[in-house]
Structure formats: structure tokens, C-alpha cells
Amino acid sequence: MAKGDRIAVIGGGLIGTSWAALFMAWGHDVALFEHDETSRKAIPRAIRGPIGQVAELASGLPAPGRLHLADSLEDAVTGAAWIQENVPEKVPLKRAIYAAIETAAPAGVTIASSTSSLVWSELSADMADPSRLITAHPFNPPHLMPLVEMFGPDAARVQAAAAFYRSLGRHPVFLRREAVGHIANRLSSALWREAVNMVAEGIADVDQIDAALVHGPGLRWSVVGAHMAYHLGGGAGGIGHYLSHLGPSQERRWQDLGQPRLDAATCARLVDGIAAEAGGRDIATLEALRDAGLIAVQRALREKRP
Amino acid sequence: MAKGDRIAVIGGGLIGTSWAALFMAWGHDVALFEHDETSRKAIPRAIRGPIGQVAELASGLPAPGRLHLADSLEDAVTGAAWIQENVPEKVPLKRAIYAAIETAAPAGVTIASSTSSLVWSELSADMADPSRLITAHPFNPPHLMPLVEMFGPDAARVQAAAAFYRSLGRHPVFLRREAVGHIANRLSSALWREAVNMVAEGIADVDQIDAALVHGPGLRWSVVGAHMAYHLGGGAGGIGHYLSHLGPSQERRWQDLGQPRLDAATCARLVDGIAAEAGGRDIATLEALRDAGLIAVQRALREKRP
Fold it and tell me: Where do the 3-hydroxyacyl-CoA dehydrogenase NAD binding domain residues begin and end (chains A, B) (predicted)?
């Protein structure tokens, strides 16, 4: 991406708008297409806060890029040097969007899909040049969360995309093969299953489980990953020692984890538990606290992770 | 706990030494009993660093308390106002220790077990006064991690213990009923199972999985818990909207998670993966980076969590 190159953002929901804020904060002009007119009109106002948040996290940013609200997909992608797709998670819809992009966009420009729940092989099946497509899944909200999970069959294209995301302060990671939920949402689902299980089984309340995570493993995992944590928990012998001495007890512990259902009774407990944890604070208030926390942690951790 | 009261720490391994450092940094005198003489002699030197780290996290600390290396369990607990037990995770050993404590310690003083993998009912079975025992599981290392997970049948005693831990800058959470692994290790095990599964299945390498966690969900969970994260990810309708619209897809996602074994091939992949992630850095270097990160995040997050 050279200076002055235009980025097309297709789909202006939460994810698309957040990506657009990130691109603009780093000086790129953005052409954004959102088919719903009410949503589209709200974007210029909604994007101001996120652009300001990026500036809290990064120093030495250039002047923000400009936003062009495109009238059509073709208008957005014509002349684009990068295309980030964020339309709803429906295979036929995304395939139709890629066909339209292949017709209108410059040949060879990368199409990066933000898909969270679909995989490359499903999405690329009808493309004239499937190698143009990569999956590049951000963690919500993309302008505050550094993670971008990447997969594509063309290694050089994936590496070039990673370099672009790194230039925006992102931290790309790479899958060896495609998987539903990529990496992070698989980890999140696995943890939340047990969090739900403990509520369903009456082991602990919602707010206590959240507090245990935030002041325990979540705090640790903001600094070191789960594998590395076991390496450092194994004493001088590291993970090799851990696996040989405590591997069997870990396997027994796995057997003790639950397989909850999200039935009506469990859902009611979750809703009531969140109400108790929120303590009357509305979602906007909680989101603002979350965002301030995410910014504070990232500022604190610069250069401090193993 | 009044000023000048003495705390008995039974077992001077990693956990006992870290607790002792925390107690001393907050001005309490500690009587520590460790039966292994070589280990016992190393403690006065090993404890200096952790005491200094507590001071990096807390302001307004009093002058540190004194350390008495006790010659016997009886010496340690005689006159103690609080007893924190950290001996190896063996039921007969812990039961024998509690019997000795009940004979030698002042009547009614709380015995708090740091057990990570045993539960209250197993541990208390032979006690003259089982109500004296609580489980108070810290997250390693206790002097840097705020979490203490608590369970006991005597609600007033548990609440008094929680007040004591809060006075040391800890964040106690409460189980409604005892559970193997309490809360945090159940969450950790559940997440690590899928992290191992992705390595075993060749979806991603160890270092990429750790990076995805640290820059994605781990970062988020240092600020907001897993339940709250779904509340904030559900739009204006919160977790109720999330559960009714995406509950079924979450249940399908749970079905797609793996059930790995820690067999020789998977263990070899984990060990090799950690070696690649460590990149030649030894455990002491990585631990120092971890500790600096944990301190930095907690300083940054004061007053910033929802």
C-alpha cells in the first residue's frame, strides 16, 4: 500500500466501520459501501470516536484519510488498492460480492474477508481467481484489538497482507489450515462453554466467574499465552517437565469439564447474572469502560510481552 | 488481623514463599515452616525479589514484616492469627497437617488451604472443627496475581477471610459449591484443551495460538470477563439478544471443538513449539518479562475495569 492508495471497505456495520476508522486514522483514504441507506448516513458521525481512539493508542499518526461514502459496490472498489469485506456471514451473499468485485476492481488486488465463522474454501469456490481471496479476521473492535487471523493459499499474498496490517499497528497471526472460528473464537468458545457450565451447575455466579477470569487467567493471558503459561508453570524443566508430570492430571481435569446446553433455564441464569454484574450500568457505559481499559493495557504492555 | 498479629505459612515452595512475600510486604510478621532444610535455607534470599515486586504494585505500604523460619510446624502455628497452608497436593498429608495444627494453634484460628486441585470436603473430613478450614486458592504467583478463589461452609468466616485478603490488595471470588479446579483452573483447562487440539490437528503452531490469545481474547479478558464480553458483543440487546440469536450457532461451535490426548506426538509438538516461541530465551528471562507485564497491566487498569 503506497501513500494515497485508496482502500475499499465493503459493508458498514460494526466491523466495517471500525476497520474504516483504523485505515483512516493511519492516513488512508477509504471508500465505504453500505447498502442500507440509514446505516450509511450514520457512518460519518459514528466513525469519529473510533478514529480518536486509534490516536490514543498510536503515536506519530499522519493526518487522517478521507471518507468517501460510495453509492455502489462498483463505485467503492474501482481504483481500490485494498478491499476489506465485512458483509453478513452468508456464503451466497459473500460469493455474489466477490463476483461483483472481480468484475469492477483492478485485477489482482487482494480481497480480505473479515469473516468470523466461514472458511476460505467455502468463500472462494466460485471465484475466477481464488488466490485473490484471503481471510483476515479481526477481533472486535478491530480499531482497538490488535489481532488479525489470516489464511489464504497464496503465501506471498498472505505475507504482503500481514505487512500491511502491521503497518496499522495490528498483530497478524497465521493459520496452517482453515478452521471454523479460526484460532481466537475457538479458544473463546471453549472457555465460555465451561463458564456457562459453572453457571448451569451452580458452582459460581456469573459475576464471580467473570471476576475470576479478569483477575486471574485473563490478566495472565494479556501478557503470556496459554502454552507459554504452562511452560513457565513447570519449574526449571518447563513444559516438558509439566507434560510428563502433570499431563495425566490435566487429561483427568478435561474429563471433568462440562457439556452445557443453552436451554431456557441456563439462559435465564446468564441474563440475570449479567444484570447483577452490570449493576444498572447500560451497555454504552460498560463499552466505554472496556475501551478505556483496552487502551490502557496496550499502552502499558508495549515492549513488555515475552 | 490486627497490626502485629503473626501469620503462619506452612510449606515454603513457590506458592508458600510468594504468599509470605505478600504478607510481609503488607507489614505482617510471618512464621514459615518448610520441612526440607535446603529449601528452607534458600527462602530468605528468594523472598527479597517478590517483596520488591509487591511494592511496585501497591502504594502506601508499611515497613515490611519480619520472617521467622520455624523449626517445626508447632513453632510456626503457636500464637498465629492466620494460617496459610501450601503443602503438596496429597490428601493424607494435608489431613495430617491439619490435625497437628488443631493441636498446636490457638483455637478457632482460620486455616486457609491454597489447594488448587483438592476440595474442601476431602480435606476437612478428619478435622475436630471442620468449620475452621477454608479453601483459598491463589493464582500463581500469589504476590502478583490478585485472584483468590474461596470456599468454606462458614459464611462469616469466608467473609472475614475475604476482608483480610482484600486488605492485601487481593481480589477474592466466591464459589457457591466446591468444585475441582475451582473456577479459574477450570476455565484455563477448557481453553488449553482447545489450544492443544489446534496444535494436534495442525490448525496452527504453538506460537501463533499464544499470539492470537495475547492480542485477542486474553487482552479482552484482562478488562472484561467472558460473560460480559458476550453481553457487550450482542449489540443494544446485550446477552439476551446474543443468546436468542446466536445461542444455537454457539452450541454448534462447541460441537466442533476437539478432544485431544496428550500423547507422545502431541507432547513433542508442544515442546518444539514452545522452543520456537521462546527463541532461545531461558525460563528466568521469560518469567521476568511476564512479571513486568503483570505489574504494568495492573497499574494501567486501576479503576478502569467495568
Answer: 7-175
What pLDDT is stored for residue A305 in this prediction?
Answer: 72
Residues B167 and B27 in one domain: yes
Give the rounded percent of residues in chain A with a pLDDT score beyond 70: 99
* Position B1 confidence tier, pLDDT thresholds 50, 70, 90: confident
DSSP annotation of B68: E
Cβ neighbors of A48 (< 8 A, separation 6 or more) are none
Report the relative pairing of strands A133-138 and A67-69 from DSSP bridges. unpaired
Do A66 and A213 reside in the same domain of the chain?
no
Whether residue B231 has pLDDT greater than 90: yes
* CATH code, domain carrying A17: 3.40.50.720
Would you place residue A213 in the very low, low, confident or very high pLDDT band (cuts 50, 70, 90)?
Answer: very high
Mean pLDDT of chain B: 95
Let me know if residue B64 belongs to a domain.
yes
Domain match, B246 and B125 both: no
Contact B214 A225 (CB under 8 A): yes
Q: With 90 as the cut, is the pLDDT of residue B233 above it? A: no
Mean pLDDT of chain A: 95
Q: Measured between beta carbons, which residues in chain B are less than 8 angstroms from residue A199?
A: 227
Q: Is the link from the previous residue into A141 a cis peptide, with omega within 30 of 0?
A: yes
Q: Is residue B179 part of a domain?
A: no
Q: Of A158-162, A228-232, A244-248, A263-267, where does mean pLDDT reach its minimum?
A: A244-248
Tell me which chain B residues have a C-beta less than 8 angstroms from the C-beta of A225. Answer: 195, 207, 209-211, 213-214, 218, 277
**Which of chain A's residues have a Cβ under 8 Å away from the Cβ of B233?**
140
A61 alpha carbon, distance to own chain's centre: 22
Share of chain B above pLDDT 90, in %: 92
Which grid cell sits at A138?
A: 479481526
* Number of structural domains chain B divides into: 2
Domain that holds residue B30: 6-174
Domain boundary among B115, B141, B174: B174
Based on the fold, state whether residues A26 and A151 are members of the same structural domain: yes
Q: Which CATH number do you get for residue B285?
A: 1.10.1040.10
CB-closest option in B183, B224, B259 to A209 = B183
Q: Can you tell me the distance from the alpha carbon of B296 to that of B290, in angstroms, rounded to the nearest whole number?
A: 10
Residue whose cell numbers read 492480542: B215
Question: Residues 103..142 of B with a Cβ closer than 8 Å to A: which?
Answer: 117, 139-140
Q: What are phi and psi of B89, to 5 degrees?
A: -80, 65
* Phi/psi at B262 (5° precision): -90, 65
Q: Assess whether B188 and B158 both reside in one domain.
A: no
In a domain, B63, yes or no: yes
Measured CA to CA, the distance from residue B76 to residue B226 in angstroms comes to 41
| Inter-chain CB proximity B271 and A239 less than 8 Å | yes
Pick the last residue of a domain from B154, B174, B194.
B174
**Which of A247, A173, A305 minimizes the C-alpha distance to B279?**
A305
User: CB distance A270–B227 less than 8 Å?
Assistant: yes
Encode pLDDT of B149-205 as tens digits.
999 999 999 999 999 999 999 999 999 999 999 999 999 999 999 999 999 999 999
Q: Are residues B129 and B251 in the same domain?
A: no
The verdict on residue B1 lying in a domain is no
